[in-house]
Structures are given as C-alpha cells and as structure tokens.
Design brief:
The complex is a heterodimer of chains A (324) and B (521).
Chain A lengths: L3 H34 L6 H10 L1 H15 L7 H17 L5 H25 L4 H20 L4 E2 L17 H19 L1 H11 L1 H6 L4 H27 L1 E2 L7 H11 L11 H20 L4 H28 L1
Antiparallel strand pairs in A: 1-2
Chain B lengths: L16 E9 L3 E10 L4 E6 L5 H8 L7 E6 L2 E2 L5 H6 L2 E4 L11 H5 L6 E2 L2 E2 L1 H14 L16 H12 L6 E5 L7 H16 L3 E5 L3 H7 L2 E6 L2 E7 L5 H9 L17 E10 L3 E9 L3 E6 L5 H8 L7 E6 L11 H6 L2 E4 L3 H5 L6 H5 L8 E2 L2 E2 L1 H15 L15 H15 L3 E5 L7 H16 L3 E5 L3 H7 L2 E6 L2 E7 L5 H10 L15
Parallel strand pairs in B: 3-10, 3-11, 6-9, 9-10, 15-21, 15-22, 17-20, 20-21
Antiparallel strand pairs in B: 1-2, 1-4, 4-5, 7-8, 11-12, 13-14, 13-16, 18-19, 22-23
Helix pairs in contact in B: 8-17, 13-14, 14-15
The chains are: A mainly alpha (324), B alpha/beta (521).
Amino acid sequence: MTSSKPLTTRAAFASAIGTVAGLLVALALMVGFFSWQSEYFFTADTFITIANDIPAVAVTAVGMTFVLIIAGIDLSVGSTMALAAAVAGIAMLQWHWALLPATLLAMLTGLVVGAINGAVTVAWRLPSFIVTLGMLEMARGAAYVATDSRTQYIGGAIDWLGKPIVVGLSPQFFIAIVIVAVAQVVLTRTVFGRSLIGIGTNEEAMRLAGVDPRPLKVIVFALAGLLAGLGGVFLSSRLEAADPNAGTGAELVVIASVVIGGTSLMGGRGSVASTFFGVLVISVLEAGLAQIGASEPTKRIITGFVIIIAVVLDTLRERRKKTT
Amino acid sequence: MSTVPGNMGAAPLPVLLQGRGIGKTYATPVLAGVDFELRPGEVLALTGENGAGKSTLSKIVAGLVQPSDGTLTLAGAPYAPASRQDAEKLGVRMVMQELSLVPTLSVAENLLLGRLPHRFGFIRGEALNEAAAKQMALIGLQDIDPRLPVSALGVGYQQMVEIARSLVGECRLLILDEPTATLTSREIAHLFKQIELLKARGVAIVYISHRLDELQQVADRVMVLRDGRHIDTRAMRDLTQADIVRSMVGRDVHEGLDRDVRPRGQRALAVRGLARGNVVRDVSFDLYNGEVLGLAGLVGSGRTELLRLIDGADRKDGGDVLLGDSTTPAKIASPVQAVRAGIGFVTEDRKSQGLLLPQSIRVNATLANLGAVSRAGWLQSDVERAEVDRLRDLLRVRSDSIEQPVDQLSGGNQQKVVFARWLHRDCDVLLLDEPTRGVDIGARADIYAQIDKMAAAGKALLMVSSDLRELMSQCDRIGVMSAGRLVRIFERGEWTEQLLLEAAFSAYAAAEKPVQQEQAA
C-alpha cells in the first residue's frame, strides 16, 4: 500500500520540523534582538566566534542525547572532559605524542569512564543519576591527579583543532558538524537507534520482544563518555592547556541544550539535529548577552529562564499533539 | 463449619443495603438487573467465575464506579455515592486487594493518615499511638506495636492493618475483596475471628472469594453472579461446594464441539517440572505443532506466571523446557533467548509490556525482527514499510496509516499490532496471555481467525484465558491450573464448563494457600 507513504512523510516531517522550526524562530528572535541592541552583534565575527565556541558542548550533547533517549542521564561529562583533556595533555607533554594519537587516547579514556557508568548502572540496576554523580567526583579527582592539580600548558601543539582553516572556521567545528550528522542518521536509520528509542519508551516491552537492553545501555554510556572525551580535547585546544577545572558545570549546559532541543528526560523521544539547535540557542544567547554588556549574574538568570521557557513550550506542544 | 449462626433466623433486622436492578454498561453490559439486600451483622459472600461482575458490583457499592441502571438504598435512604469518599462518609468501606499502606510510616500513622492528631501542625505522638492502639484492639490486634513501621509487618498483618484502617470512623458496611489471597492459614484464622467481632458489632460484610471452603466457614449467605446477572442467593448452610459451582456455570453446554480437533503434529515444546515458589508448582505438559492448548484457571492460579517462566521472563526455581523433540533442556533464561528459540509472547497487559505506545504501528510491528528489515544494521525503510503494510492488511488493523501511533488505536487493533509483531518474527511457539481482553467482538473474530491460521500453518499455541467459553470454542485441549498446579488436561469432548470449573477450584480445597506473585513492595 503506497497510500500510507505521503502521510508517513508528512507526519514524520511535521513532528521533526515542529521542534526545529520552533528553535529557528527562537534563534531568529534572539539574533534580531541582539542586533537591535548592539551594532556589533550582526557581524561575521560574532558568528564565527560562536561557531568555534560550540564544538566541545555540541559533541558532548550528541552523546547526552542518546543517554536521555534511553531514559538515563550522565552527570559526569564535565569531569570526563577534564580527565580526557588531562590525559591528552600528559601524552603530548611528557610522552611527546602527536595530536591525533593523543586525541584518540583522550577519547578512549572517555570511553572507559562511560563504559564504567553504563556497566555499573546496568549490573546493579541503579539510577544512572547516582552512578554518574559519583563518577562526576571521581573523574574530576582523577583529572587533578593527572595534572598534578595545575593547569598544564600545552601550547601550539594542540591549538590546530581550534584554529581557523576555512572562512574563519576551525577543524573542530567541522568535526562537530560531521558527528552531529552521523549521529542523527544512526539514531533514525539504524537498528541500534531504533532499539534505543524502544528502550526509552518501554524497556520491558523491548525485553519481551527479544531485544536485550543491557548491552545497548552500556554502549550508549560508553559512547557518551567517548564524545565527552573528544569534547575535552576541543576545550583544551581552545585553552591551549589541560586545565583540571575545565568543563566544571558543563554537564548542566549540555543537558540544558539537549532538553531545549526537545529531547525528553523521560526517554523515548529525541533528535540529535534539534540538540544541535539547542546548543546554538544557548551559545547565541550567551554571546549576545555578553555583547550587550550584561553582567555575569544577569546572564545566568536569563539563561536559566530561557531553559525553563523552552521546556514549558515543548511540553505544551507535546501535550497538544497527544490530545489531537 | 457452622460456627456462624448469623442473624438469619433471628428476628428480621432492618435491611441495611438494598440494590434494585443494578446494572453497569461499558462497551458491553458487565452487570445487569442485579437485586440484593444486606442486613447488619451478616456476611454475604459474593462469588462467580472470572468476569462474572463481582468486582463491578462491589465497586458500585463502594462508590468507585457509578451504576448505569438501578437504585441503591442504604438504611432506607437513597444511596448514590459519587466517589469512594462519599461512600466512606456514609460508613461504606472497601478493602481492595492491592494494599494502600505507606510502608515507611508506622502502623499508627497509617491507621490515622489524613486525621493525625496534631497541635500547631506537630503530630502528637502519644495521642496518635493511643488512638491507634484502641482502634486495633477493636479487631483483636492488640499484640502489634503501633509504632512499628508497616514494612516490618508480614503481608498478613499488613492486610489486617488495612482492615483496621477502614474501621476508623464509622463503618456500617465493609467489602473485603479476596482478603485471604496472600494470607497463611494462621492469618486466615485470625482474620475470621476479626470478622466475627465485626459481625457482633453489627457491621455488614460483603466477602468476595474464590475459595469455596472459606465461604463455608465465614459466610451466612452466598450470592452467585454469572455474566453480570444475579443467579442465586441462598443461605450457606443449605449449600454444598458443588451446588455453588453448578450455579456459577449454569447450563452444561458443550461448546465448540462443532469444531474438529486440529491435526496434531510433532512435539513443539515440552515442559517438565517447572516451578517457581508457591506460584507455579511442578508443572509438566507437552505442546504440539498445529494445536491450540488452552490454559484455564482462576485469576492468581499461576497461568501468567507459567507463561513467563517458559519465556524466561522470570527466574524459575526448577524444571526444564525442551524444544521440539529434543531430550536436552533448552537454555532459556531470558526472553531474548526465548525469541531466538522461536517462542513469542503476547502479554496480558499489552500497554505496559507489549507496545511502545507513542510509537507508530510500523515501529511496533517490526520490533521483534528488526534483522529482517535491515541490512548490516541499517534499516531498509522501504522494505519495512512494505512488510508492515502487508501485515496491517493481513490482520485488518484499522488505522489511518502505518505511521499512526498505537496509543490512538482501539484495544483490538493494538492487540493485532502485537500479533503482527510475532507474525513478522515467524515464531514456532506462541504464548498468548488473555489475547482478547479488552478487545471488541469484531476484532476478536479477526484474532480467532489469525490463531486458526497460525495453527493451520503448524505453529504451536498456548493460550491463557479467563473466558471459559473462549477456550472451549478455540482450543483443542484445555489444561486447568489451580493453586499453581496443572491439575488436569482435558481433551476436546471431555470437557464441560462444570468440569473445568471444578478442576479450577480443586487445588484450593487443600489447606495450602497460594501466594500471589509478589508485586513490588
């Protein structure tokens, strides 16, 4: 029956576009407002700065999107970023590794941290909130140990990732875009992605349908760790250093971005593409507020307010969809 | 046995509760034209098959459900409670099967929840414990310390605390729904003593139970319902257990005799000594390709639990499942392994255990066999769409498109989606748990036709149902479970509704009490 196809596309399209469209409107409004308030905002420089600022949060948010889709949460990503960056820093400074192998080692570090999160959560059926809260402390501590509690200056060896190559954009921006695109396809077009949505919607139904949720959950946490590891390297390439305090509180920015992107904290619903727009909303907001001269406390109050408004709007939209 | 004189022979007391023409219709009538009356200080046992209307009637009395027809009179005044609170204000209370205690609070706090004695918002501990102790003494529970947390008590005592709580404030009429389901025989004896005390205080009691031997100990009169109709109410002392079963069944119909027995193929599955606690005890049987084997039994007799054991969804204490004509036990420790071994499971509760409700028909239908619609892990969306379209037409799932979320479908169409999933997986053995519950008549016929087709294709089907007539019309053999045991397997032609029901009650006559599957505390 081909009769179902148009409706298929239309329904799926409408649902996916709904969130993205909302986010685009929000972005347009913010850009308009800040351009009106500050003559310096609407310039290529601003957008290039934003683009080069977001990769660390963006790739970490991709992993977080998967975690939220299976109805989990990962609070340890900020610390994982710092630990992975510290490991990369040591590899480059003390063992004189090149950037690529050091980055891979950092990602491996994140992978191990995430796999531990996932394995402990699954093996003892614990809430991932608690497990990753513990890991938040442990990974941070480990980052201090690795860096000897001092910011390790790496310098030019690592800044290639964050330096402009094309029209002012850095390699890490392009890497982030590719990761977002690949992750979106994996989520929507693979058996893996489908299974994650199933687990987040009704884990027991998946189990009875013959899909073992446990290995998949471990993989998702490992993936989140791996991407946080990469995010950590991105962060330190901007700083040209491995800072044990890097990424403090990043988990909150990351979770906020994912949730603004319409991914449900209850699991089963989410999109990597909208997560990316969620990241943009937060970074445009922060850049704009900085440009119009808002103080740090004001920025935080407004950012928090926007997070709540975004989630309220998304929830209302979902509810309306259900009743129609 | 006849320790209970009741008030039957004494000077007629005024009627406490009277029902006239009570009826309730949802999609179909579940209760129609029921008349009854209840006097202070008597125990009226309410009994009948699964789905006879016992719980609907008791919920109407307790204010949880509003009747579609008929009138109730309480102590001479019209009685139409709009809610449970309404009914409770008038002294009508119901103790449900599921306990509603707060496990972390003390016995006293639970008893007086919502009316805790306090001064300026601070709980007056002494007054609380005193009031609770007084309350518990009323029903012979003085040996429990009211300061203990409820979670420290056994299930039996928790049940008693629940009863004690319903007696806080005025109680003229108490409904007990299967109060002994989780109790040991000592606790049951204690409960019956409490019931005596309540009767002496003039409380009228409606007692719902499957256990016919209990009714003989505790009931003054027995009221039998069948298919939502009032069949008979008689004094317990004039009745035997066989009499009660006979009136539950009504006519002795030999249903389904018009259907030929399906040709039986090779053995598909053998169950040997399967056991889990008190819930499933030493169950053995063979299931053959091409047949539909029914499983009858009362609610709580272990049928669902047996299916879950076969599927590996719960851990078994002992026993084996053999696949095909193999003589070595299959290793099925999880549903994942069961599916791999070709066993599919249509669960009783399709919403919580079967479907991804917000997801589309398409996503739900291919869940158990994503390998067939993907290549190297990548979903082939055109293949998937084509297959789901085919399944949707085959099963006649009424929907706008295969992209419609299943929570927008009717119960019958949702069930068809679950069937579609296992059809897509093409499993050899299908476990069906109440496959037509909440399914309208039209969709029911479609599901029966599908069951037929699958059997004809050589699949082996094991079907649990609480609807005896459904089993009699659809199955080639019917096994009957009672108190966790598979007491007998009837061949087609051997069974009557009476025989099936007798078998279903048979193991409960023994002193051992079944323990219902542990729910989360």
